[in-house]
Design a protein that fits this description.
By secondary structure, this protein is mainly alpha-helical. It contains 10 helices and 4 strands. It has helices spanning 2-57, 81-140, 149-187, 203-214, 257-265, 272-278, 287-297, 299-322, 332-344, 356-361; strands at residues 71-74, 77-80, 224-228, 240-244.
Length: 362
């Protein structure tokens, strides 16, 4: 019994020891498995964070659009949302950049064409006024004439017809310019695509420009009107001066604003890069800002050219207004001298404006 008991106790102890050792091995294995799983998870997390860091270091500003779930399975294919969103944003920005470049070129072409046409319209108006003076004023006021009236009437009819064609072309270019302006606002999401011109924020400016470019005396208008000359009868000159209706063609000098627009369009601040930069900031390259930049950049050139241009235009207008009552102002040099004297305010001499039109110009 003792041996058997001892054996049984030893066997029980040995089996118990074996059981305890087996349970120890099992607990150690499970602990190792849990540790490896946690280590794998930590490695995957660190790998993802390292990947995000490395991608965010050299990322572009367009990579701000991110998604928490980057991989999406659709139709059996995997799509990376990070790549897809970044590509779509880049395509949108590139499309806007190319569209803005094409609009900028179109703006400059329209501005150049308008400048040339406005210069042609002013020259035609000046020619018409000169033909009216030689052919009509001389016979109206009883002054001697060298050329017959009929010859100048045919020339004036042709001149007016060409002037009408130029005016129609300029009105069409105004519509083309503001149509491009509408597309520009639609590109910036500031104007609906299906909205009409009547709802546009620039409708008042467009109507004013249409009026300025359409204003002229058409062919067939052969009327005259009398204006009181603000002076007594001097040397047989009548106190009432009769003007031809074509004198209103002097108002065509207002079309010179196209030259100002051309200067603004060819400035560095009016390029596609400035407009594209304005899409991301609150700073916009408005004509006022570009004009201030040009004046600040070249103030002496701007003031000198503006003064010279105004003197030439006002001298021509003064000559057209005063030549019926003041034969000495038929010379453009005397008219220019009178304009400069009026600006510097040093007083008048023997020549001074006698009509209401001449005094309004001075």
């Amino acid at each position: 019994r003792s041996e058997g008991g001892g054996r049984s106790e030893a066997g029980g102890k040995s089996e118990g020891g074996g059981g305890s050792s087996g349970s120890g091995v099992g607990s150690a294995g499970s602990a190792a498995l849990i540790g490896s799983t946690a280590h794998a998870r930590s490695r995957s997390t660190s790998t993802r964070s390292d990947t995000k860091r490395s991608s965010s270091v050299g990322a572009s500003p367009m990579s701000v659009l991110r998604s928490s779930e980057s991989l999406v399975v659709y139709g059996g294919e995997e799509f990376n949302l990070d790549v897809e969103l970044t590509t779509s944003v880049r395509r949108t920005l590139v499309h806007r950049w190319e569209f803005q470049q094409s609009l900028d070129k179109w703006y400059r072409r329209i501005a150049d064409a308008q400048s040339l046409l406005s210069l042609a319209a002013i020259l035609l108006a000046a020619l018409d006024v000169e033909l009216v003076w030689t052919g009509e004023y001389d016979s109206l006021n009883g002054l001697p004439t060298d050329v017959t009236v009929s010859t100048h009437r045919h020339a004036r009819t042709i001149t007016k017809a060409i002037l009408t064609a130029v005016s129609v072309a300029q009105v069409a270019l105004v519509f083309a310019f503001y149509r491009a302006k509408r597309e520009d606002l639609a590109n910036r999401r500031g104007y609906p695509d299906d909205a009409s011109f009547l709802r546009a924020p620039f409708r008042r400016r467009m109507l004013i420009e249409i009026l300025v470019n359409a204003l002229h005396i058409p062919p067939g208008a052969e009327w005259t009107f009398g204006v009181y000359a603000m002076s007594m009868r001097v040397g047989g000159v009548p106190t009432t001066v009769r003007y031809h209706l074509d004198i209103f063609n002097l108002l065509l000098v207002a079309r010179l604003y196209h030259w100002t627009r051309t200067l603004l369009m060819h400035s560095r601040l009016s390029g596609a890069s400035s407009h594209f930069f304005g899409l991301f900031t609150v700073i916009k390259a408005t004509p006022q800002l570009v004009g201030k930049f040009l004046i600040y950049q070249t103030p002496i050139t701007f003031l000198a050219s503006t003064f010279a241009l105004l003197m030439l235009l006002l001298s021509w207008a003064l000559r057209a207004c005063e030549r019926p009552v003041e034969p000495r102002l038929d010379d453009f040099g005397n008219a220019l001298w009178l304009s400069i004297v009026s600006v510097v305010s040093v007083g008048y001499g023997d020549i001074f404006p006698r009509t209401a039109c001449g005094r309004a110009v001075t």
